[in-house]
């Protein structure tokens, strides 16, 4: 930092040496700090000259001042301008966010930080007249206000701003090509699009960031048409023939990791797999068996790992851990209902956080995830929707002139309220680019750069379409695929770059008829992974009551939940006192003697008696939720007795 201190001294800063008792104070003097330490003081009137000297030395090739130096000048407060802590703050430490701007005058590129830009005068190229304004720096372009992700949206200046923000979020959820090292990566979950393409309409940032190496979607022929009603409320109809030809095909990679600490006595292997067939205890510890109640281990190798390329499904074993001390093996099984292919198996020796040696086995499963009804798609303009119907290709409308059938049908009601004009321009421009064999520059704010010389996209690409014999606005005459009749109006059809998102119905659907219950309350458990149900809460109950469907509530909350036949004593009203008293008898020499006997020839007589009244004459069987009996038991533990009255005329008598 000697070069920085030398520039400060030359610019008139009073450098501080040692301890200073009477330091100059603001507002007459400003503090100059370098990397958090007070370096000196300068007069307020000289502050701008000091900053200018530092910036000149920063971009000078002869100076040793680092290019990543951040020079934050916080002026004193004056007429609602300035900061609470005025001074000159210089930073050269690493890990700071910087961005390039152009100095004015001079035209040299300077990297500025987040703190200094707040109090700088930077001109943005918005196409307006700024000759009367004072500025010291100029943005490199009007797109500097956009982030990396936002700069990929074509013609984002034609869209409503919330739609651009939606696209920034959804672009991070696309099933593109996130990496090229799939065969080496042990990520827990990875998505891969099998048929990615380069968009026809793209921005300058697309090539600057080399997104072609990590594409995000596919070009699709999209028709804006309300057809059959399956495309209501943002749903979309997809061409089944295009899907069969590979449109939006994708793959999901999941990796399971098994760890064995050193010295535990466990090794990967299946020396005792055959013993599992005869050991019922091990059946219960190795999760559910397969559908035919047999252990599927035919796809496993001798080292206890799955064989590459083998197809596994729910309940199949993919890893065997053999314990040398107990001479038993524990199988780890595949979870989920989808079939998978063993893509990769890796065995490695590593160390844990405490430096102890351990052995890890990673098994990667490859799932086929081609589009099905319920999967989510999106254009680059925040127009998201789910696949509602896979239409046979012969039933779809087709263009009268060329016979082309659209890949996607979307509803025209998606445009008026959302005002995504950029998507309409992209459809028209991509169509023109496909006809002319060229990629289209879809960078935003082009009019701010070119000014009056910039032709509107509608005029530019409409003329290309007209030159090739197409409609100026991109409309086409379509024929009904079912009847062969011509549509009364022309349909807007073109090419749009569509993204397939990772929200798939295969990962989200939850359905249950019967399944595990909570042993405490006897009610169905929650959670999709555990085979539970979807909670029917108070608001759902209120909705059914408002619709007058009270008996449906009885079905959901009682019959299909924790229906229980309870015994109630009508004498004392207790729900907990009735209990079954079992008498075990067997016959000797023509008579019966009551005593305990566990022989198979014994007879069992069971009768429900009230333990309070010591009689069974008043026992009534009532159907009620089991959780009510559980509530009575909990209250009884706190010396609160719950009494019930049983009878047909109870309500009438009151």
Average residue-wise pLDDT: 86
Largest sheet: 6 strands, mixed, barrel
Count of the separate structural domains: 5
Shape: extended
What is the CA–CA distance across the termini? Answer: 93 Å
CATH fold group of the largest domain: Dna-directed Rna Polymerase Ii 140kd Polypeptide, Chain: B, Domain 6
Low-confidence stretches: 272-294, 589-602
Structural class: alpha+beta
The DSSP helix count reads: 14
Which CATH class of the largest domain?
Mainly Beta
Strand content: 25-35%
CATH architecture of the largest domain: Beta Barrel
What's the total number of strands? 33
CATH superfamily of the largest domain: DNA-directed RNA polymerase, subunit 2, domain 6
Q: Can you give a write-up of this model?
A:
This protein is an alpha+beta fold and 654 residues long. It has 5 domains: 2-140, Hypothetical Protein Ta0175, Chain: A, domain 2 (Alpha-Beta Complex); 162-249 and 373-500, Dna-directed Rna Polymerase Ii 140kd Polypeptide, Chain: B, Domain 6 (Beta Barrel), CATH 2.40.270; 250-368, Beta Barrel (OB fold (Dihydrolipoamide Acetyltransferase, E2P)); 510-559, Alpha-Beta Complex (DCoH-like), CATH 3.90.1800; 563-653, Alpha-Beta Complex (DCoH-like), CATH 3.90.1800.10. 18% of the residues lie in helices and 28% in strands. The strands form 9 sheets. It has a 6-stranded mixed β-barrel. The chain starts with a helix and ends with a helix. The model is unreliable at 272-294 and 589-602 (pLDDT under 50).
């Amino acid at each position: 930092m000697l070069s920085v201190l030398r520039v400060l001294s030359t610019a008139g800063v009073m450098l501080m040496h040692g301890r200073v008792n009477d330091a100059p104070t603001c507002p007459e003097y400003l503090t100059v700090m370098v990397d958090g330490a007070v370096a000196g003081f300068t007069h307020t009137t000289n502050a701008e000259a000091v900053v200018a000297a530092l910036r000149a030395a920063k971009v000078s090739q002869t100076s040793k001042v680092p290019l990543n130096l951040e020079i934050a000048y916080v002026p004193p407060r004056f007429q609602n301008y300035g900061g609470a802590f005025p001074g000159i703050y210089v930073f050269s430490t690493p890990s700071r966010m910087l961005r390039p701007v152009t100095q004015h005058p001079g035209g040299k590129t300077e990297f500025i930080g987040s703190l200094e830009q707040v109090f700088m005068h930077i001109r943005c190229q918005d196409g307006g007249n700024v000759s009367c304004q004072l500025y010291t720096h100029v943005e490199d372009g009007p797109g500097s206000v956009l982030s990396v992700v936002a700069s990929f949206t074509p013609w984002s200046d034609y869209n409503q701003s919330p739609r651009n923000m939606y696209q920034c979020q959804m672009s991070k959820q696309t099933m593109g090509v996130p990496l090229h090292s799939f065969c080496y990566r042990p990520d827990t979950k990875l998505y891969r699009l099998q048929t990615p393409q380069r968009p026809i309409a793209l921005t300058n940032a697309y090539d600057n960031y080399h997104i072609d190496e990590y594409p995000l979607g596919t070009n699709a022929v999209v028709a804006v048409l309300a057809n059959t009603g399956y495309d209501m409320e943002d749903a979309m109809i997809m061409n089944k023939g295009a899907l069969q030809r590979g449109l939006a095909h994708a793959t999901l990679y999941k990796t399971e990791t098994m760890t064995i600490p050193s010295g535990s006595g466990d090794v990967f292997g299946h020396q005792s797999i055959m013993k599992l067939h005869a050991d019922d205890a091990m059946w219960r510890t190795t999760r559910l068996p397969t559908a035919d109640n047999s252990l599927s281990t035919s796809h496993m190798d001798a080292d206890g790992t799955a064989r590459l390329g083998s197809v596994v499904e729910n309940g199949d074993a993919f890893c065997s851990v053999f314990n040398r001390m107990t001479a038993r093996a524990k199988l780890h099984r595949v979870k989920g209902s989808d079939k998978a292919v063993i893509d990769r198996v890796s065995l490695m020796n590593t160390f844990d956080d405490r430096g102890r040696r351990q052995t890890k086995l990673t098994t990667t499963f490859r799932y086929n995830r081609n589009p099905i009804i319920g999967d989510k798609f999106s254009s680059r303009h925040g127009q998201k929707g789910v696949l509602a119907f896979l239409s046979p290709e012969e039933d779809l409308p087709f263009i009268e002139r060329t016979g082309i059938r659209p890949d996607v049908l979307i509803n025209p009601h998606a445009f008026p309220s959302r005002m995504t004009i950029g998507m309409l321009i992209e459809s028209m421009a991509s169509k023109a680019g496909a006809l002319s064999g060229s990629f289209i520059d879809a960078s935003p704010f082009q009019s701010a750069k070119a000014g009056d010389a910039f032709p509107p996209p509608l005029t530019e690409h409409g003329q290309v379409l007209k030159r090739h014999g197409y409609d100026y606005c991109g409309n086409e005459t379509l024929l009904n695929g079912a009847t062969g009749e011509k549509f009364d109006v022309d349909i807007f059809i073109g090419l749009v770059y569509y993204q397939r998102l990772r929200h798939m119905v295969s990962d989200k659907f939850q359905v249950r008829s019967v399944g595990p219950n909570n042993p405490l309350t006897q009610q169905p458990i929650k959670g999709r992974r555990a085979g539970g149900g979807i909670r029917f809460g108070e608001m759902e109950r209120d909705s059914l009551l408002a619709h007058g469907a009270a008996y449906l509530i009885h079905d959901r909350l009682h019959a299909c939940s924790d229906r229980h036949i309870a015994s109630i004593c009508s004498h004392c009203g207790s729900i907990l006192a009735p209990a079954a008293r079992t008498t075990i008898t067997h016959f000797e020499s023509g008579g019966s003697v009551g005593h305990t006997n566990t022989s198979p020839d014994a007879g069992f007589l069971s009768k429900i008696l009230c333990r309070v009244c010591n009689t069974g004459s008043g026992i009534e069987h009532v159907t009620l939720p089991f959780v009510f009996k559980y509530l009575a038991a909990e209250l009884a533990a706190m010396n609160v007795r719950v009494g019930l009255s049983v009878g047909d005329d109870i309500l009438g008598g009151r």
